[in-house]
Design goal:
Layout lengths: L10 E4 L1 H4 L10 H6 L1 H7 L3 E4 L3 E2 L11 E5 L6 H13 L3 E7 L8 H8 L11 E2 L2 E3 L2 E3 L13 E4 L4 E4 L14 H16 L4 E5 L31 H12 L7 E5 L6 H8 L8 E3 L22 H15 L6 E3 L8 H4 L6 H13 L4 E5 L20 H13 L4 H11 L36 H5 L5 H14 L3 H6 L1 E5 L6 E8 L2 E8 L5 E4 L3 E9 L5 E3 L2 E4 L4 E8 L2
Bound molecules: alpha-D-glucopyranose and calcium ion (CA).
């Protein structure tokens, strides 16, 4: 295996709109990131992924790009981008940007041209189709549903036809069957890499090819969402190979594809194994669904399925063992907050640290999502009017349509997974608006900012923040560096419903990682190990008697061990 810089990096994801507002207009911006680079360096981060800041009408907070080479006014200017990249590099921090190539904004000049007439040179940049006739009415070419609710086709008056859009109406999908689209995207990627960025997180990359236009069958939904119609289809790989050949392989860059949803491990391997020459790694979301979400009612709470969670992580770790590399992330800007998903509000410090250790000791490149390092939580939504994200409103409506009598449950279900949760402003201090801005922010601040904030974490050597810093330091600078980065991963006790235990092994070094996902006191047998050293823990003192460790709630501990023969 060729070692690459990005295998040894520690990533941090920034959602610019919510990170830090430098000019007090209530909106996070590029200068805000610039001002917080030292903060990230102190944490130990040496790679940042910045979500889109390109010119955009902000229907989907910037994932609807109007101009790939311009900066949204609210975020700053191209000068700010240059300054940010330069300072990050001076501090030893690499920078990757979001590359959105499945769609543009409907306000992108290409789309304005494309929709204007059927023989416009840009017509084939997007996916157009005639409608069908049904009972004397014109309807969509297929019944396919979109990710954000409703049909994935939108009728367009000027040419009396439909365009495809698997996200929002304002995000028409690009037509990758058209090679001119490839050329445009190749130019865009090159231009940014030539500017000195270090790679891309590639948005929605699995959707670039479409199935035959046949209706989804067997669903009672008017517009059933069937991922298979536009996910992981064969041509995507041809497109990625081309991008790799013509751009990525010419730079020492990192490319991480977002291949969520229906991507199985086999598909993941196709995108990112070393011998495929497509992407460096892929983000998957299998570990984001390991609880009883589907059983949640207005009173029944979430519960983590530890056995499932372990099996998911294990499958990816095992499958990529010799043939590829993985990012390690608990969440991103589309997922609920980690503390609210798998943590325990009664034991925030212990459970937060345990979750951090459980992930950071695996093989791969860790990515921390902003605010994760201080244990930020989901927002306590009380009403659907509080949702800002378009997809949350869609989810609420979907559940309400299914059970019109239970709006409380519909709200709870939508709230638990709402993409607004990770997007509330970063909680820097207990000042007004959590120190994010002095003006009312674009998005509500979580009311718990007085107890959960950066300033408070930094004053307490025992805080979650310092635990993240220690984990990072172990991976970067300690004598365990190599075993943590490159060691073999071996799951232990797969059927234990409360403990997540695994080993990492490299040459003569073995780490034993024990994580309790329970409030209960538990014990764990250590008799097959000779204890050499305690590497990191979330309680100062351990209780070990007769070769058994007695674990406190959410106790997490890493030992260097030798296996007894
Ligand atoms: C990805 C992004 C998400 C966005 C979507 C459309 O899933 O992570 O935030 O809404 O793509 O660009
Ligand atoms: Ca601002």
């Amino acid at each position: 295996m060729d070692k690459k810089w990005w295998m040894e990096s520690i990533g941090y994801q920034i959602y610019p709109k919510s990170f830090f507002d430098s000019n007090d207009d209530g909106i996070g911006d590029l200068n805000g990131i610039y001002q917080k680079l030292e903060y990230l360096k102190d944490l130990g981060v040496n790679l940042i992924w910045i979500c889109p800041f390109y010119d955009s009408p902000m229907d989907d907070n910037g994932y609807d790009v109007r101009n790939f080479f311009d900066v949204a006014k609210e975020f700053g200017t191209m000068d700010d981008v240059n300054k940010l990249i330069e300072k990050a590099h001076q501090l030893g921090i690499k920078v990757i940007l979001d590359f959105v190539l499945n769609h543009t904004s409907d306000e992108h000049p290409w789309f304005i041209e494309s929709r204007s007439s059927v023989d416009n040179p840009y017509r084939d940049y997007y996916i157009w189709h005639e409608g069908r006739q049904k009972d004397g009415q014109k309807i969509e070419p297929t019944n396919w549903g979109s990710f954000f609710g409703g049909s994935c086709w939108k009728y367009d008056e000027p040419t009396d036809s439909y365009y495809m859009k698997i996200f929002s109406d304002k995000m028409p999908d690009l037509n990758w069957k058209n090679e001119k689209v490839h050329d445009e995207m190749i130019q865009i990627a090159k231009k940014w890499l030539d500017k000195g960025i270090d790679g891309f997180r590639i948005d929605a990359v699995s959707h670039l090819d479409r199935a035959e236009y046949e209706d989804v069958k067997g669903s009672t939904d008017r517009y059933p969402l069937d991922w298979h119609k536009f996910s992981n289809l064969p041509k995507v790989h041809d497109y990625l190979k081309k991008l790799n050949q013509e751009v990525f392989s010419k730079y020492d860059c990192l490319t991480i594809g977002e291949v969520g949803g229906a991507a199985s491990i086999d598909q993941g391997i196709k995108y990112a194994s070393f011998d495929r020459d497509e992407l460096s790694m892929v983000f998957n979301f299998d570990h984001n669904w390991c609880n009883n979400l589907h059983e949640v009612t207005s009173t029944k709470q979430l519960k983590t399925n530890v056995v499932l969670l372990k099996s998911v992580f294990n499958k990816w770790q095992e499958s990529f063992k010799d043939i590829g590399w993985l990012p390690l992330n608990w969440l991103n800007h589309d997922q609920p907050r980690l503390m609210s998903q798998y943590g325990d509000y009664k034991f925030p410090k212990a459970s937060g640290k345990m979750l951090a250790t459980a992930l950071h000791m695996m093989r791969g490149t860790p990515f921390i999502y902003q605010g994760e390092e201080i244990g930020m939580t989901n927002f306590p939504f009380e009403d659907v009017s509080q949702f800002n994200d378009i997809s949350s409103v869609g989810t609420y409506r979907y559940h309400l349509e299914k059970e019109p009598d239970d709006p409380v449950k519909a709200l709870k279900k939508a709230a638990l997974r709402s993409r607004d949760n990770p997007r509330t402003p970063m909680q820097w201090s207990n000042d007004i608006y959590a120190g994010f801005s002095t003006e009312k922010p674009w998005m509500m601040v979580n009311p718990n900012y007085k107890t959960i904030n950066v300033e408070k974490n930094l004053k307490d050597q025992d805080s979650l923040w310092y635990h993240y810093q220690r984990l990072i330091d172990l991976r970067k600078n300690s004598k365990y560096r190599d075993v943590i980065i490159y060691g073999e991963y071996q799951l232990l006790d797969p059927d234990d419903q409360n403990l997540y235990t695994y080993k990492r092994i490299l040459k003569d070094q073995t780490l034993l990682i024990i994580n309790s996902f329970s409030r209960k006191k538990l014990k764990y047998d250590l008799s097959s190990y000779e204890m050499i050293n305690k590497v990191i823990s979330n309680y100062q003192k351990q209780s070990i008697k007769n070769q058994t460790i007695y674990l406190k709630p959410y106790e997490s501990i890493v030992f260097e061990v030798k296996e007894k023969l």
